[in-house]
Design brief:
The chain is 36% helix and 30% strand. By secondary structure, it is of the alpha/beta class. It has a single domain, classed as Rossmann fold (3-Layer(aba) Sandwich), CATH 3.40.50. A seven-stranded mixed beta sheet has the order 7-6-1-8-9-10-11, with helices on both faces. A two-stranded antiparallel sheet has the order 2-5. The protein has a two-stranded antiparallel ribbon with strand order 3-4. Strand 9 and strand 10 form a beta hairpin. Helix 6 packs parallel to helix 7. The protein is globular and about 45 Å long.
Length: 176
């Protein structure tokens, strides 16, 4: 049997790109104004790259694992151009990664969308690494890809590895 290429799955918002200001702007009580939050002009004006140390850690983890970088985002396909521009600004050039985006009109919860994409990608790749800012998504991914290394990202704490204990509790270890 032919061995599949390994993949490092990386999120965009909150992982490679600091979108906190944009989402704060789009916050309406406990709801998000998605039209505003997904406006390309607003994205370019308010989003910033994550701290350089975080981006460097993420790229290093993917390269050390000798994986194809697969950027999986909950952003709709209509934002492909602006997303590629943002990835270039942080140093990821087209051809160095595969960009997987949500189809326009797909309104599933982000966690449901991403899990379904991971399942599709697992038919083509060995999912070796998953890097995301959504802890619930990572815990869900752990149940499906037990051999994958999972990493949680935050602007303040950087990149931390997610490990499952025998008791089922979660441990986050800092990556130095």
């Amino acid at each position: 049997m032919k061995r599949r290429e390994k993949a490092c799955i990386v999120d965009v918002d909150g992982t490679l790109i600091d979108s906190e200001r944009r989402f704060r702007l789009a916050q309406r009580g406990n709801m998000i104004d998605w039209e505003l939050a997904l406006d390309p002009k607003i994205i370019m004006k308010f989003d910033r790259p994550m701290p350089r140390r975080v981006i460097d850690q993420i790229v290093s983890l993917c390269r050390e694992a000798e994986c194809q970088i697969v950027v999986v985002t909950g952003r709709p396909e209509r934002l492909r151009e602006v997303t590629i521009m943002q990835l270039e600004r942080i140093g990821l050039k087209e051809g160095e990664y595969i960009l997987v985006m949500r189809e326009n009109g797909d309104y599933r919860r982000e966690i449901d969308y991403k899990i379904s994409r991971l399942m599709q990608l697992s038919r083509m790749y060995d999912i070796a690494v998953v890097i995301d800012d959504n802890l619930d998504f990572l815990k869900h991914a752990r149940t499906l890809f037990r051999r994958a290394k999972l990493y949680h990202v935050s602007k303040d704490r950087g990149v931390r590895q997610l490990e499952e204990c025998d008791t089922g509790s979660t441990i986050l270890d800092y990556i130095s």
